[in-house]
Automatic annotation (TrEMBL):
Domain called Major facilitator superfamily (MFS) profile: residue spans: 22-505
Membrane topology summary: Multi-pass membrane protein
Major subcellular location class: membrane
UniProt KW Membrane keyword: yes
Localization per record: Cell membrane
InterPro entries named in the record: EmrB-like, MFS, MFS_dom, MFS_trans_sf
Protein family per UniProt: Belongs to the major facilitator superfamily. EmrB family.
Protein name stated in the entry: DHA2 family efflux MFS transporter permease subunit
Single annotated GO MF: transmembrane transporter activity
Membrane-spanning residues: 17-40, 60-80, 87-107, 113-138, 145-164, 176-196, 208-227, 239-258, 278-302, 314-335, 342-359, 371-394, 475-500
GO cellular component term of the entry, any: plasma membrane
Assigned keywords, A-Z: Cell membrane, Membrane, Transmembrane, Transmembrane helix, Transport
Amino acid sequence: MTDIVAKPNMARPLTGATLILAALLIGLGNFLVVLDTTIANVSIPHIAGSLGVSVTEATWVITSYAVADAITVPLAGFLARRFGEQRVFISAFIAFGSFSLLCGLSRSLDMLIAGRVLLGLAGGMIIPLSLTLLLRIFPAEKATLATIVWAMTTTVAPIAGPILGGVISDNVGWEWIFFLNVPVAAAGAAGLFYLLRGRREETARSPIDLVGLVLLVIWVASLQIVLDEGRNRDWFAATEIRVMAVVAAIGFISFLIWELTAKHPIVNLRVFRHRGFVVASVTYALGFGAYFATVVLIPLWLQQNMGYTATWAGYATGIMGIFAVLASPAIGAAAAKMDVRLIISTGIAGMGLISLWRTGFTPDMTFLQMAWPMLLTGPFLMMFFIPVTGLCIASVEPHEQADAAGISNFLRTLTAAFAASLVQTGWTNAARVNHSELVGAMQQGSSTIEAMVASGLSTETATTLLSNVVESQSVMLATLNMFAAVALCFAFTGVLIWLAPKPKGPIDTSGGH
């Protein structure tokens, strides 16, 4: 995993304008990568229509990026030790821009997914190394400022993603959500190459756990295929799904055995011997997964069933950033004084109650009625996000903190990818079940059509209108079902955090980033 503590004998920290500009460019790299986790969410209908595929198929654009991003996190530490943080970061920055160009030029879903996988592989190295580099270039006494730069880009980027994605998709074209990265990444990489030139880096020929990496890729990719394709192939009725499920299970078990016995494991599973880390990291993963499921579902529902454009769906999702940014300083200060378990559980409870609030949504609700719950989500999200990352780090030995940071973020990213698939599956299945139940309950369907025909409509038009009403209601009910399921997940997660032992002393919330 990536080293997060500056080593002795490294190049001296930067100063003045050089420090400020380098910090901004490094933060920009992290911002772009995190931005791309959500910028495509509101663009899925545009992408699906342009490439001639279903919206369900197009959601691979979201999950493929998240999975590839998660898989690369363990590899970033090895590459940094082998070639140096600066070289790897700048190379990944350039690769991110190049693969973004490939995504924008895609004219088929397969090509776009391949580009998103490559984009995720490059981005997975930028996220952990961005903090490492920031801590390298800042003086030791200003390390907190370095973590603030990193934390703000990590927090603001996923909130800005839906807004930018919506505006760009509606007014320019979905391709430009990827083309936008190209000049920014090129300028950022060139600027960093100039500013950091000549700085000495310590490298070592550290061994890579190639077997562990291959097993990780196999079980994660296989499980994601099962989750994404299962709903399209009638789940385990399809031979391919059964085979991939077996491969995922065997791969996961083999991965656990290998990593627990390898001399230089790519993922140090020994940190799971700490109860506090287990509880905090699982809470982190489940809580973020439930949140991410919501920000995937809401834009799709608004565009497909509520008549929203991608721009307004982006506004509806990104509005949470207003209170989130304003509340962050106070929450960070409170985490240094209070039992963070209370702050975390309060944040999760707040998000759970908001999910319950959404179960009262109706098809004729206004933008403001829909936006208020999202707006109020911001502070609760920060109450969860800021202290839980610090708790993950504080729960392990000092020499294990880099591993804990990497593993917790790996689980968070991976769970987000799984959550996106699961909520899509649940939404589709619930809509199908609700549709069947509504049709079965319509005792006066024929008389309704006859009345519509009597008013001057043709039989075909009357049938289509009634069918559309039933379809709209079934999807609305399915959406409410998913909000209820998310609320239950938050309820479980909010209780789970109390299984962690009470932290001894204040939590350093910067460590988790």
